[in-house]
Predict the 3D structure of the following.
Amino acid sequence: MVRRGAPLRQVAGEFQVVPSTVLFWTRRAGTARLDRVDWADRPRGPRTPGNRYPRTLEDLVLGVRVELKRTSDLGEFGAHAIHAALRERGGEVLPSVRTIGRILDRRGALDGRSRVRRPAPPPGWYLADLAAGQAELDSFDIVEGLVIKGGMAVEVLTGISLHGGLGAAWPRAAITTPVVVDALIAHWREVGLPTYAQFDNDTCFQGAHVHPDTLGQVPRLCLSLGVVPVFAPPRESGFQAAIENFNGRWQAKVWARFEHTSRRGVQRQSAKYIAAGRRKAAPRIERAPPRRPFPARWVFDPRVHPQGRLVFLRRTSDDGAITVLGHTLSGDPTWCHRLVRAEVDLDAHAIRFYALRRREPSWHPLLRTVSYEFPHRRFTWSPKPVR
C-alpha cells in the first residue's frame, strides 16, 4: 500500500498500528521484493557490538591457546595463561582475562564439562523387595532440643512409612528405650507390621556401643515380631531422607506454628496433625504394600535369644573392612570407601556383604560371606508390673 502511494498514517490507521511501525517495516523492505525480505526480528543496535574485539584478535587468542597447549612447560592454556602470553608479546591491544574467557566460550574452545545429573535411585533402593514396592519400611527418629518457654524440655519420637507415608509422632519429656518399645508396640498394633523398620545408630535404638555383640530392646522387639531392623549408615545422606523430611514438617506445622505452654498441649496438637496427615495420605496408604496383622497372643520378652535377620548399611574403610556389631570384619579389598549392605543372619550364623551403588540401584552382588554366631548371654531386663 505504501509503494502504491498510500500515506503512512492511512496505512497505520487501517492496520491499527502506529505510523512509526509502518515506517520501520517500509525501511526494512527497501526496494527489494517482499517475498525476499528477511522479516525476522533483530535486536536493537548494530549487528556487531561496538565493544567486540576484531576477528583477527579472536583468531590470535585461539592460536596462542593451541601453541600453549602444545609447548607450555606447565601445561596451562586457559584464559590466565593466554593473557600472560599476550602480555609478554607486548601487543598494543590486550584483552582482559574475562574477555579472553568469553572469546574461548564463543568460539567453542573450552574443555570444561558440565556436571552430569543422574536420576535419583528409587526409594528403598538398597533393599530389592523394598525398591520393587513388594515390602513396606517404617523409619523412626528422635527430634531433640525442643524447649517450651520456661525451660520445659520436649523430645519427639517420629515415624513414617516409606511407601504409604503413614506418619506418627510421640512427644515426651525424654525419649528412652522403654518409651520407644511401648510406642512401637502400640503403633504396630494399630496399623500392622511392616517388613522392615529403619533406625539410625542411636543407643536408644541399637543398644550400647561399648561392648561387641550387643542388641538392645528395640531390635529384639523387631526380631520377635518378624520385622527386619535396618540401621542406616553413619554420616550418610539420603537413607533417612523420608523421616528427616517428616521431622521438618512436624516442627514447622506443630512446634513452630503454635505457642505451647505444656507438653500436654504439644501432644494434643501433634495428634491433630497426625490424624489430618493420615486422612490426606489415605489413598497413598491404601496403595502401599500390605502389612501383616499384629499377633494376638504375643508377649515381648527380650531375654529370649534373638532369631531372624538384621541389616546394617555401612561404608567400607581404606582396605575394604566393615564394622558390624562391634566387630571389624575384612571385606573385599577392591571395594574401598563404598557402600555395603551387611545382612546378619542369626539363624544361618553368617553375615553376608552386598555391594551397593546409587548409579546402579538394582545391582547388589554378594561380596563375601563371613561365619558369625551371636553369643548366648544373659540379657538384664525387668518386666513391667501388670496392672
